[in-house]
Design brief:
Four copies of one chain form a homotetramer. In chain A, 53% of the residues lie in helices and 13% in strands. In chain A, strand 2, helix 2 and strand 3 form a beta-alpha-beta unit. The first copy, chain A, is globular. Chain A is of the alpha/beta class and 291 residues long.
Chain lengths: 291, 291, 291, 291
């Protein structure tokens, strides 16, 4: 298919590369153009501005946060310049409130909005093994199958309202952060009684908790391997904040999320924010005087 | 081998049955003798008092809590009547502090103490698929291999001091309770934005969190299938309390455990305590007015 | 002095009345004009639009939240129409971030911005016994003395940057909410052991905690006298949210504030939001099954 | 009256001295006898063992914790040696569960048990300004009036069951600890926005929160004046733990108490435990990177 792709961070690059490899024609744009170089060598076409990425059947984007979407898409009034019938697939984790605003702006100009946030770290994206949570028109989702097949192991449709996909993504990221804190506290308890954190996590994560999240992050925590980050502490705080905002809007108390927010704030206020968010687990050791 | 077995609740019965089936000679005792009936039919020998269960190479027990151990084992001064060289294998989840006391009482009378708490619900015990966390003398642990092989899929040795095994068990049960609360809060957030709790948990637990704990309990939560219980809310509170006591003794702050304690207390104060501990997840819905 | 006054809710009406009584010439405006009637009878002048309230030496306002300020002051570009030298005194509790934006908008048009949030419920405002936390130019603050004297028992200057006054106000409101939760939990503990909540609170609040906040709210809690509200649960959540946002911006973890947020959300999700925020204390009883 | 007094720590000494000064005949005993010296000079009679202190109409004690009471009173079977009709007044903060046990042991030997925990730091005890929460037989309480008058500003009777007084004392100490945490978090928020902690606390504690607890502890926090301690961090943790145990026994969730427990543990695990418990407030600054 003929697609545009905006936002070439770690995740965006890996996804766009898989689209190129699958034979799609991909127009790429990124604020700092250097990021596009490897993709061009792979066969992508670099375009000079975001608008040029819209001359396509489908526009995908993977931008950092609400503010970046607002700046690149809304302030530039990109949708107004889109062909009628353009499908816009937003792969990023944005707030539930902003998703509604963005979808409405798209639809006003006849652009078909699909919320499609993904689960998976950069290495998962590179392996085309993402899980996509998709909300949008069912016919549109069917048309997107060849693209999704090139980047994901599975698509999980959750209905038509885009905020549903975002709520699932935010609730899922909350679950990951919660697993990080859980492992941190549990490992501190074990270590304080003579069992090394790594040995403890190995027992639990090889058995009852044998799953991608616990095994991947359990290893990082056991090895204190927090750099380079797959997902930074700063982004971790951002996503917990978005989960709490979505919860607030729907009046859902989330005490675990409150603890996570405080711990991310402390981790950022007292340590290097560019570390992987699994460094959250360090706080439990530090609070117990075990560091 | 020639073994005694004390404590025939749901878990004890399943474990003792597997020992009988594996060809061991098993003397069983339980406070309410009716529980022994099925085992006798299977080939076990019912003995009239706990002391008679000690005429064996190995005594195993699976009693409810610290108080039950104190009453059956310490108040009756059972260890004083044991053959020198008896190995006592404690399969139960007891407190870290009590483990030390019990091990010391055993050793004073030449009884070799092995802490061997198990992970697994009754159906896992029945399938001989438990995970055993074992602390004790390595030579003793090797002698116990035929017994452990009959009841567990794997043994995880964690050193010689018995409290280590208990710390691992308590930290592990904390992790399970923490997963229950996490799923409860996340599902409430998803549901408040239009995605059914079951659909949400299915996505996460089929992918990032695909593990026995999340899948087993995710299903119970999605189906609100809280009775009959595999492990009751009352026992859940007991184990969180033990984790907090062990943490307190070693000065380990555990904010998630504090939230769990409050929620178990609320679940018991306001609902039926005999439900499965996964009913903890209901509170998140209730607090959000979604019940 | 010649003053304008915008925002005639419970608090605004009481404050404006005291200004009139002290002999100042007060131009009043409110979205729903009926609120101005009693003030006009007292001697105030009703003006037809907010802009007319600016024809004065000093403009005071007491509006509900950030959004109301934005709508009435910024969207209408009021400051552009102000006389150079106008002093604008904002008595309301707004966010730290918005205070900066509003102050900058005022100063761009030569308007002198004073942040002057007040502590005190409507009956305190009526008695001219407010405490004002004031941030602004010291010379300006001196000029405002006759106005403040008419409405407050004391002014507490905290420097020139307006966000300082707002941070103090938000931190102070957090302290009140925290006292509500504290009384709720403590009274539930006492009541569960046979001491009535009112008797318990009377002992503590007559002695160690004898202060306006504990005595006023302790009585409301003891008598379950939550209506009519002096300050609603909805406003309580708003202010805790603002405190958490200000804390987030400065990376200050606030675990008590996190608990408060969850409990306000639960109180709103499960009960009538128009009750006084001291109804927060009811949750402790409900969670303990004591209601 | 003819009284015995056991336990001459900071509090016990100050109270016993006031009894002597009021003209009562006081037999004093303390484990380390040196503590009795100043009292002997004041007119007290030092006795060689706890039993000798029971040759009196009334025995008062101020011992450190449950364990000290058990050792001095129960293990020595003191009550068995008491005159029938002895009144035993326990001034200390003990657990709700232990109070029941101790009262029962006393009553078995005809000793009249009065639970009379006190509110007040050592300087308040010295000034005879304590508040006593008393539970016991009303006739007995009347007989004790001359003693109480010599040491307290007021007695608050809460019924006959002794655990009621202890529940009030524990709930009250929880309220103080909660105020410490509240001031810590609020001051950190203010300080992060440019208002010094001392200035902030002065505003709030001079107005809305003007009470002994906020003013005394607010000053200690503002001046970081944590040594010498009036009440140590270690004792603070002990009392929060007792509050949580009493809450657990009655199924009362107390989320603020859970936060306090974690923070006391962290303060002890990472700093000097002999500081005043108001040092709890330092953690809020440290977590925000403001220390």
């Amino acid at each position: 298919m003929d697609v545009g792709f905006i936002g070439l961070g770690q995740m965006g690059k890996a996804i766009a590369a898989n689209l190129v490899r699958a034979g799609h024609h991909v127009r790429v744009w990124n604020r700092s153009p250097a990021s596009a170089q490897a993709l061009v060598e792979l066969g992508a076409q670099r375009v000079p501005d975001p608008a040029a990425a819209l001359h396509a059947e489908v526009l995908l984007s993977m931008l950092a946060d609400d503010a970046a979407h607002r700046e690149v898409l809304l302030d530039e009034r990109l949708f107004a310049r889109a062909n009628r019938g353009l499908i816009y697939v937003n792969l990023a984790t944005v707030s539930v409130a902003f998703t509604r605003e963005l979808a409405q702006a798209a639809r006003q100009h006849g652009v078909d909005y699909v919320a499609a946030p993904v689960f998976g770290r950069p290495e998962v994206a590179a392996a085309a093994k993402l899980n996509i949570v998709a909300a949008g028109d069912p016919t549109t989702l069917r048309r997107l199958e060849p693209l999704f097949a090139a980047i994901a192991q599975r698509v999980w449709p959750v209905g038509t309202e885009p905020e549903r996909a975002n709520a699932v993504k935010l609730a899922g990221n909350f679950m990951i952060a919660s697993a990080l804190e859980t492992m941190g506290e549990a490992a501190a308890l074990a270590q304080a009684h003579g069992v090394a954190a790594g040995d403890f996590l190995n027992i639990l994560n090889s058995t009852l908790f044998a799953s991608p999240v616990y095994q991947t992050y359990g290893r990082l925590i056991a090895e204190k391997h927090y750099e380079p980050a797959g997902f930074t502490l700063t982004l971790g705080l951002k996503d917990v904040r978005l989960a709490l905002e979505a919860a607030d809007a729907a009046r859902v108390p989330m005490p675990f999320a409150g603890v996570l927010r405080d711990h991310f704030l402390e981790a950022l206020a007292t340590g290097r924010p560019e570390r992987d968010w699994s460094a959250l687990a360090e706080l439990a050791l530090r609070h117990a005087g075990l560091e």
